Batch of 2 targets.
Target 1
Amino acid sequence: MSCKKVHGKLKKKLKHRPDFKSRETEFGDQETDEASHHLKLAMWDLGHCDPKKCSGRRLIRFGVVKPLPISSHFPGIVLSPQAQECVSYEDKDIVLKKGVAVIDCSWARLEETPFHKMKGGHLRLLPYLVAANPINYGKPCKLSCVEAFAATLLLVGFRSDAEGLLSRFKWGHAFLSVNSDLLERYEGAKTAAETLSVQQKWLEELEIDSMKSRDISYPSSSSSASSSDESDEDINPEKTSPIKDVN
């Protein structure tokens, strides 16, 4: 099942959205000694995004992420829409020894992004998760670079490293809280098949909640004319693109 139809349970999770007060502070950062300096993190930057809002560029400035030239090869995990496999705990040794790379491009310019030039030894997709960054808050799969890095580290068992990356952003904790229940399930999966099974079950639960939210009790024939004329607007399921690692 693709990433879509976020209603019911997800709406409840997003009810208490963080207060992003201004453009100057919403992407504010915090220094921390818990970052993943011992892991190799890298990024291809297509130059599509506002550098002031790009989480990936901030991580480069922190010295946590290494920029990669276009057409260069990365030996570790590469999060790419061209992948056929999902990130899972089975990738732990690859992440530990060879690292993780993301592709920083705009969601509005995917068709012109030369994904074929950004090659790696192990292409992967992330499973369903909800963004908590200020730009795409509450949107399924539209993760920022730091969220994509953190999600990968969480799935392979490096929670403290993931938390260290997220702690550099004032809104970073929101990614963990918004996805807390789902991340707990993913972290219990040991194989890619189990991870996809968790995703499938979660999406089915969201679909059930969505259907329940549309289960409207219509007025009976004995109701007044004013009541019977009332209608409830249908909810249009939100559709998203496959998971890519962008700002």
Target 2
Amino acid sequence: MQPGQILKFLRENRNLTQKALALQIRVGTHVIEQFETGEKVPDIPTLLRLSAVLEVPASELCWQSPSPSIPMVDNEITQLISGMGPQRAILILRKVKELTEEEFDYMMSWLYDDENKINQHL
């Protein structure tokens, strides 16, 4: 997902119009539209105001290209996110990130056990 799409998703998720967000960060409505379409990139102070209003780390809104050490999201992950919707994917990934190793192992065991039970009934 591109930074402009993330911005739009977060804005809509908080039930903010472009005008309402623009007023809160002290820019014109057309500027928000340009950010969301990728025509314009916010400067650092604007990025920080967006971060504060949308209540997300500024790093989630960064308009920089990914670091070469971070692998690009592959097609399967992109399709999974599209299929479940970005909001659900973000919620799930945030929860999984908080799991301890033991909790993660338990969850994976539970998922695979249920998958095997379902496949046996098909």
